[in-house]
Amino acid sequence: MELKIEARNVELRKSWQTKISEEQEKLIRHYPNFVLHLRISIEATTHYKEGGYEIKLVATVPNDMVVVTRSGESVRTVLTESFDVLALQLKEIQRKKRKGQKVSNLVEGADNVGIIRKLSPHESYGFIMSADKRDIYFHENALKNVNMEDLAEGDSVVFGETHGDKGPQASWVRSAE
Predict the structure, then answer these.
(1) Which string of DSSP letters, residue by residue, matches 70-81?
(2) Scanning 1, 5, 143, 162, which has its CA 20 to 30 A from the CA of 121?
(3) Are strands 125-130 and 135-139 parallel, antiparallel or unpaired?
(4) Which of 134, 177, 136, 137 is nearest to 157 (CA)?
């Protein structure tokens, strides 16, 4: 994990660096190889009545970025709170990622039955009408035990569904007979 610490309008104290190192170790232990970069900004603010601090954590994770901003009177307390919030957000990102993988695995692994609705053999593709009346695109390359020339509109097929660039598509298609 690449770490960058900035201090604005304040001198970076050794105790703060120690606290940051402790929190960084926790992140590495709980989220190994997940947080790629972490930028920490500690700023002494002048807009608080008795003075105060604003902590900003920016964590880069695969395909996402998490930003946490917290303010308070004590840097160590605000650092702890900021890292706790960051950990909760990282946990949520990983939960959503796992849930998305489960859903896509279920969809891709499922055997669906449908009927050939439209064929374009010269363009090497067609559409299947699924049991729930959706159009599922398929390409000739997805055909398993049948050739494009052997299919006709109205034929029953079994297929595996996945999500393509333009919507649902068949990852494989077999003749149901």
Answers:
(1) EEES-HHHHHHH
(2) 162
(3) antiparallel
(4) 177
Could you count the other beta carbons within 10 Å of the beta carbon of residue 101? 10
Between CA 68 and CA 60 the distance in angstroms is 12
Task: List Cα–Cα distances, 143 to 64, 65, 83, 124, 168, in angstroms.
Answer: 36, 40, 51, 10, 16
The continuous run of DSSP H or E covering 23 comes out as helix 14-30
- Tokens 């669906």 identify what position? 112
Q: Which two tokens stand for residue 6?
A: 């900035």
Q: Taking the CB of residue 53, how many other CB atoms lie within 10 A of it?
A: 23
pTM: 0.56
Angle at 104 between CA 100 and CA 108, to 5 degrees: 175
* 3-state helix, strand and coil shares in percent for the chain, rounded to the nearest 5: 35, 40, 25
Residue 170's SS3 state is strand
Alpha carbon 133 to its chain centroid, in Å, reads 29
Interval 45-101: pLDDT, tens: 876 555 689 999 999 998 889 999 998 889 999 999 999 999 999 999 888 887 776
Domains of the chain: 2-92 (3.30.160.100), 109-175 (2.40.50.140)
Is there a contact between 36 and 18 (Cβ–Cβ < 8 Å)? no
Residue 22's identity, in one-letter code, is E
